[in-house]
Amino acid sequence: MCLHALARAQTRYGQVPQAGVATAVPGDALHFSFESAWWVFNLVANYAYGRYSVVSADISAHVVAQEAAFFAATATLEQKAAAAYKSNPETVVPMLTEFSVATGDQLVKDWLSLFTTLFTRYRDGFINTPDLPVCAPGQKKGCTGRPIPKSAETGYPSPWYGRIATECGDHCEVGETHPRTPRVPSALSCCLPPPVLRKAWHCPASCHFEC
Question: Which residue from 124, 130, 151, 128 is spatially nearest to 51, judged by alpha carbons?
């Protein structure tokens, strides 16, 4: 028996141990399913395409942790399978298949959890991290009643700013030769801000009340 029956099925962001004799590995590339490893891996991959510089470190750390766990688990399994093959060879194939299916199913759950974490943390072009912990029962200071993120802007890549400046040319310049036109908001919007903002916004003199 070849103890390397655990072939490593390569994915976009890592490798999943799969037994070469497994008989129950599902998959469908034409119909989306949250239970399909191919689709869940692609959720993470396609989310990373446009924000690789921001999310790649989180994904790489997840890959390293998963692969370390796989190496440890497969080493234990190979020893167990080798011992079983000497005494009862018929049990080895079901053993490897069960391990492969269970490992794959758990990885799909873990990778879907990774996607939801990435989507929550990096949504809307921000990096969202916890600001204060949620209050424990009876706690009233240094905490919040519900999770409130601390959001930091990530901006756009430097090449994007350069392209916009090149394509826009003089039209986008702001300076002494291209003074900005004062903003003249509607009467309704002038009623909403406090006086200091109404002055900065060049509101009409007739707008002197708060809504």
Answer: 124
